[in-house]
Amino acid sequence: MPYQAPLEDYKFLFEHVIDYAHVTSTDRFSEASMDVVSSVLSEAGKLCEDILAPLQRNGDTDPAVLENGVVRTSPGFAEGYKAIAEGGWVSMSADPEYGGMGLPMAVTTAVNEMMSAACLSLQLNPLMTQGQIEALEHHASEEIKALYLPKLISGEWCGTMNLTEPQAGSDVGALRSKAEDNGDGTYAITGQKIYISWGDNDFSENVCHLVLARLPDGVAGTKGISLFLVPKKLPDENGNPGVANSLNVVSLEHKMGLHGSPTAVMQYDGATGWLIGEPHDGMRAMFTMMNNARLGVGGQGIGAAEGAYQHALYYAQERKQGKSPLADGTGTILDHADVRRMLSTMRAEVFAARAIALMNAVAIDMSTATNERDWRARAAFLTPITKAFGTEVGMDVANMGIQVHGGMGFVEETGAAQYFRDVRVTAIYEGTNGIQAMDLVARKLMDGGEAARALISEMEQFVAGRSDDLAQPLKEALALLADKTEWLVQQKDMNDRFAGAAAYLKAYARILGAYCHYRAYVCDHGQGARAKLATFYINTLLPEHIALLAQATQGAKDLYALTVEDLVA
User: pTM above 0.70?
Assistant: First the structure.
């Protein structure tokens, strides 16, 4: 079925839900008006519908392979990437000084989500490059910026990030890769990295790797790690790709999904690299890249959910099965209550997750434009919520999409299963969703809950004084969320927080999603399609928060009462 970019949803959210007007009120983004945004999204939508979506199945059925040391990408991916690069879609938020568009992150987030819905395997490539661009803008020397940023921004060169090693997954501080000073401003990088998304390709002139490694005087753990830029081909005196560097792709992983995206094992054997940022400060530099990458991965989950929803809706509109319970029904499975329940849930979840991601992007834009502490805190607080909730929605909606198809969902020819297989990894990479939840209840509450309370207060102010049918359950949910947030803040034992972290994150997201739906309800005057969707979400899905917040405040006692022996009995 053809993919259709949900342009009206984006326009509605920008104009009525996510307070995008804050962004255009700043000097930095004053020219990024809604007319500009609408034009950009429209053009991006055409790219996704006409060029990227037709490549979705190719990536799954004809995956990337490693042949004689060369990565061969899926049919059509080279042409698809060329269209992305030439359209400037790699560099939407990049610095105009080096050729970027300088658009708000909110716009980039929407475009990235559309590309994810159209072809997630290929979209992962520019997402990696965008992260590298940001890291270099903030931490690289002027010489590195001048050489690398124009090439990355134009899409002539691609970027990756190399964190994980066989013995160092989420525990990055356990890495063994080493860096030795060559005495000429460069370093020799040696080690092996695994799970490197788009570690190589056959369509860009160069692939530039950001690699975490330890200098000889680097202390153990994350505080002794440095960051290096290590290109596949060393630039010559004119800045063009020259001789091959001492690195290679050892193998490509055989994966559950994302077959079109080559996930590489990378070997560095004294490869030439350049230090990015200060010695032993690599994690700070890498997190500049990772925080917005987490927003991007949340968007990948939402994009996959959108694609799965459209796929399932199209099938349900065509499939006839059983007697319709409706006298004036369609005669298709859309008439059946359970199918209607699944499709309504899918649609409502996508809207909520999309709104949260765009709110997060607006906070990032406001932080960038104003450098105000409150906006920085909000952006930081929303990042783990966006990443975890967006990807959980992606998995849940893709799973429901298979169910809507029934037996045909389990048959690969329909393409329904691909959405689930492709999106599943998004809950794992860029920091597992469990780590996102732990980050939310630990680091993000280190301010005593100030950022969490500020957002709750803002939601309470919006709903205060309203007396429609949806206002009261939202008011009650916000009061309970505020109470349970205080409980978490008071817990000194981090394990008591961690035990309920995943439930707290989902509860916060569920209530924040209800707030976004409620704003749509108010804007729709309680009558149109968006109001009906909001009513379904608040009446049917919001009540989950009660159970989730009960879980969030149980502490760790019951978890550890179950001994290892009990678990294996």
Answer: yes
